[in-house]
Structures are given as C-alpha cells and as structure tokens.
Amino acid sequence: MFDFIDLIVITKWLGIATVILAVLTILAFVLKWGIRFRAVGVTSFMALITIGVFALDLSLYQRVAIEGAERFTMVYDNGGSEVVIAIQPELINPTSLEATLEQAANDLYSPGRLGGGSDPKMTIRARAIVHPQEGISEPLYVGQVKRSLGSRENANMEIQVDTQAIARLSAQP
Q: Higher-confidence residue: 57 or 97?
C-alpha cells in the first residue's frame, strides 16, 4: 500500500510527465506531425490522472486516536468555523471531555473549511441534553475547543471545560 508521502512524489512525477507531454503535443502541432491528435488524447488523459492522484493525495490522512476520548455525534456544522457535537452525559468527566474535544478537533479538521470573519479558528462546542423536568429537554454546553483552520498540526488548541456544567450533568437522575 502507498504511504501518504509516496502519493506526493507520484503526483509530482505525474505532473512533470504531463507538462512534458503538453510540450510535445504543442511541438507536434507546430511541426504538423501525424500523431498530433493522438498526443492531445494522451496529454488529456495524463492531466486527468494527475488531477485524480492529486485529489486522492489531498483527501487521505492518518486518523489520530486520542486515548480516553469518548464517542461523539456531530449535530451542527456550518461548513466553516462552527461545529457542535453531542456527547453521552453519563460517560463524561473533565478528563474524558478534554480528550473527546481534542479527538473532535482532529477528526473534523478539513482544509476545505471556510474561515468566517476575522478569526481563522474553528470552534467545536460539546453539548449534552439534560432533562430538568419531565418532558423538557435542554441542551447543556460542557466545553469547547478552538483550533486553527489553516494547519492540520495544531499544538496550540484552546480547550475549555466547563466544570460547573459537568457537575450539573452528574446531578441529573
């Protein structure tokens, strides 16, 4: 199986081959060679293959598994800088919430996200549903993480855990 780095190298060499074929195609038209129309087809096909490998190169990445992270469900995503995830209230404590927020920040990063406004950061908020009375449901935000929209490797994530909200979750029957 190819490694992520191998696809970068393959894309580079395919791009070089495509450019060389394009130059040969132009030369074939200038010199009126008999294979000039075939050269157009070969060059177009190489360009298509190069674009396809480049797109595959962009889409693949290694998923990071954060120890202690709990499962979450994405409930809102504006395609840009704001995401809300839902967590199971009975599984959350401050340590697991921090790990879950870090896991969500890694999983939901995409180079195609649009940075809205002047702050180029993605904010992921974690919430759980509490039931203060029978038949009433209320979302309770228990934490959030802010990460860079521009870089996959983000060592300076701002993780905030609301310990009062977690205590309120623990008090639920």
A: 97
pLDDT class of 1 with cuts at 50, 70, 90: very low
| The amino acid at 145 | V
Percent of the chain exceeding pLDDT 90 equals 48
Residue 85 pLDDT level (bands cut at 50, 70, 90)? very high
With helix as H, strand as E and coil as C, how does the chain read? CCCHHHHHHHHHHHHHHHHHHHHHHHHHHHCCCCCHHHHHHHHHHHHHHHHHHHHHHHHCCCCCCCCCCCCEEEEEECCCCEEEEEECHHHCCHHHHHHHHHHHHHHCCCCCCCCCCCCCEEEEEEEEEEEEECCEEEEEEEEEEEEECCCCCCCCCEEEECHHHHHHHHHCC
List the domain boundaries for the chain: 4-59, 72-171
> Is pLDDT of 138 > 70?
yes
